[in-house]
Design goal:
This protein is of the alpha/beta class. Helices cover about 30% and strands about 15% of the residues. The chain contains twelve helices and twelve strands.
Length: about 325
């Protein structure tokens, strides 16, 4: 089993944003490492992930070695692109396929169901995964997210190369992960192309919203227990980009649980249900039936919307699809 060489260097105060640096001295070239422009998410380009087929430029290997500092402050150095990747993050999975690294993926968590090509991959546990099934796949890169942070040390102790990629805090950080995973997997040009396409779409949305001065107050429901998304999450970033006001503004945790009284008194103009259907069974009818909720302006005006939780909750290329849908919901008359 051949692993890319990696170094683990503890760094203090390293934030969530993925820092990618090419080791120019080892590369011996003067390639411009700044990249092109912006990205994509768990499905982009009008419902499809941009960059399905690699461009000619993307077929040119990125210079190696490549060093990445992950969300835990550990620096990992790759001497060559990983050939056998395990992803325990649905968002990272969508990024890998978007940048052209899908054929390098050998194992996925059970919730990684997009794009359709993921159906042929070996399935692994999502929460607290055991290392033995992963070892059996002989990975040379394991990608873990916040949910598996507690297993990182155990996997590394068994010789596996692990990148901890916590969920990005905003749209810019999502694009950063697209670029980083493109470089790490040997698809740097395609990562830049996908990121650039996403950036263009984000810019187009912001241009459409230029005349909006007072967006609606929104309650984004993550679970029937009234958990919501705070402003310092990428979901909160979506709302802010769409110029919406967040009922959870001022929250000190990423996904606070609000009381029904707080939401009723806030009187949101729009309610978004990420817990509809199989995600939690919520609907405009169940919201209407909640004690005291019938008087909320969003309920009275029929502005309670079930949204695709996979689209909105996963920090991948399709978050821009989510942004475009969000704008359509919040501003139905906006051209």
């Amino acid at each position: 089993m051949r692993h890319p060489r990696f170094l683990r260097v503890p760094l203090l105060g390293v934030a969530l944003l993925l820092a990618v640096a090419l080791l120019s001295a080892a590369c011996g070239g003067d390639d411009d490492d700044r990249g092109a422009s912006p990205p994509a998410s768990p499905s982009a380009a009008s419902g499809t992930t941009p960059g399905g087929s690699a461009s000619a430029a993307a077929s040119v290997p990125a210079p190696f070695p490549v060093s990445v500092t992950d969300s835990g402050g550990t620096t990992v150095t790759f001497t060559e692109p990983p050939k056998r990747i395990i992803s325990y993050s649905p968002g990272a999975t969508e990024v890998l396929f978007a940048v052209g690294a899908g054929s390098q993926v050998v194992g996925l968590d059970k919730f990684s169901d997009y794009p359709p090509e993921t159906s042929t991959k070996t399935r692994l546990e999502y929460s607290k995964p055991a290392p033995e099934p992963a070892l059996a796949l002989q990975p040379d890169l394991v990608i873990m997210a916040t949910r598996q942070e507690g297993q990182v040390t155990q996997f590394r102790a068994l010789g596996m190369t692990v990148l901890l990629l916590k969920e990005p805090a905003d749209l810019a950080a999502v694009l950063g992960q697209v670029r980083a995973l493109g470089k790490v997997t040997g698809h740097g040009a395609e990562g830049e192309r996908v990121a650039a396409a996403l950036r263009q779409r984000i810019d187009a949305v912001q241009k459409r919203l230029a005349g909006v001065t007072d967006g609606p107050l929104v309650f984004y429901e993550v679970s029937p227990e009234l958990h919501t998304a705070g402003p310092e999450t990428f979901i909160g970033s979506l709302l802010a980009t769409a110029k919406a006001k967040n009922v959870a503004q001022g929250a000190t945790t990423a996904f606070p649980q609000l009381s029904a009284e707080t939401i009723i008194s806030s009187n949101p103009a729009v309610i978004l249900l990420a817990d509809g259907g199989g995600s939690g069974g919520q609907s405009p009818a169940t919201v209407m039936a909640r004690p005291g909720w019938a008087g909320i302006v969003a309920v009275k005006n029929g502005r309670v919307h079930v949204i695709d939780s996979n689209l909105f909750n996963r920090p991948g290329p399709r978050v821009v699809d989510a942004l475009e849908q969000l704008v359509g919901i919040l501003y139905p008359d906006l051209k």
